[in-house]
Write a structure and sequence with these properties.
304 residues, mainly alpha, two-stranded antiparallel ribbon, two-stranded antiparallel sheet
Length: 304
């Protein structure tokens, strides 16, 4: 039994073919304009899933980079403050050696004591250094000024560590606690920097032979110990900075690798896409011309 092919069947078939070619051409045009191989999840579900994973990994890496940048800035701020404190302590040491000589009279020693008191306030001022509005020597109590200027040497912060996560499960401490270096003065009797400097001031103003012996002996030794602790803390900050720089380099490499993989997954091959677009455009134009010849417009076409 033969089947008669009607004009409407030819038209429907032709329209279906034209729509199919036009749809492919439209998708290629979108790919060409966006530069992306994947424009919707249905294009390649596996590639879409992989792209989502890579984007998540890329954002995580960038967050670690931001953490490293902040930690580096925090460490740099701390190092600058410690360098200034070091300069002040070295000046205090020079004054101590000068004032410990018995050739100095009471007035000369009082003047030296006054200058050391000025250095004490300078040291506490540096201990109140801030980064982005937060006190770097106050532990995690970053909104609290660690030290008040004046006779009180009490520490107002806490001793908690400020840490930054620079990788999966990798955290770095970036702060120095003010009381670990400066202490809390004579009232605490902790034998740290402020305690030592206050004792030096008292011995300079005391004027007795015992005070002179203390200046030349225990005071100088204690101040050198404080200076050694200061240098140790600076070395710790230096090693932390080196570690952060290494982490930043590693994160940049990871970011570059993830970006390349994401590009391979999402980005279209522009040369191939241009060729496909040209071919599909030619096919579409040919189909239109062929369709115009196949589909009869009216009964008059049969009478010619």
């Amino acid at each position: 039994m033969s089947t008669r092919i009607t004009q409407s069947m030819v038209q429907r078939s032709l329209l279906a073919d034209l729509n199919s070619v036009a749809d492919r051409l439209s998708r290629t045009r979108i790919k060409l304009s966006s530069g992306k191989e994947i424009t919707r999840p249905s294009d390649d579900p596996f590639a879409v899933s992989r792209a989502i994973t890579l984007r998540s990994s890329l954002e995580e890496t960038r967050q670690y980079q931001r953490n490293v940048n902040e930690a580096t800035a925090w460490a740099d701020t701390t190092e600058v403050a410690l360098a200034r404190i070091t300069d002040a302590v070295q000046r205090a040491r020079e004054l101590l050696i000068q004032g410990s000589s018995d050739t100095n009279g009471p007035e000369a020693r009082a003047a030296i004591a006054a200058e050391i008191e000025t250095l004490i306030d300078l040291i506490k001022q540096e201990a109140n250094t801030t980064y982005a509005g937060r006190y770097v020597f106050a532990g995690t109590a970053t909104e609290t000024r660690p030290y008040d200027l004046g006779p009180s040497d009490a520490y107002n912060g806490n001793t908690d560590a400020v840490v930054r996560e620079i990788g999966p499960g990798v955290a770095v401490r970036v702060n120095v606690v003010g009381s670990d270096l400066l202490g809390q003065g004579q009232a605490a009797g902790d034998d740290k920097l402020l305690h030592v400097l206050r004792d030096i001031v008292d011995h300079l103003r005391g004027g007795t032979p015992a005070d002179g012996e203390a200046l030349r002996g225990t005071d100088l030794s204690r101040l050198d110990d404080s200076l050694g602790e200061l240098n140790r803390l600076r070395a710790v900050i230096g090693s932390t900075t080196n570690r952060l720089e290494t982490a930043q380099s590693r994160l940049l490499e990871i970011e570059e690798a993830n970006r390349n993989l994401l590009s391979e997954t999402e980005d279209a091959d522009m040369a191939k896409t241009l060729i496909d677009f040209s071919m599909q455009q030619a096919v579409y134009q040919s189909a239109l011309q062929a369709g115009a010849n196949i589909v009869q417009a009216s009964l008059l076409d049969f009478l010619r």
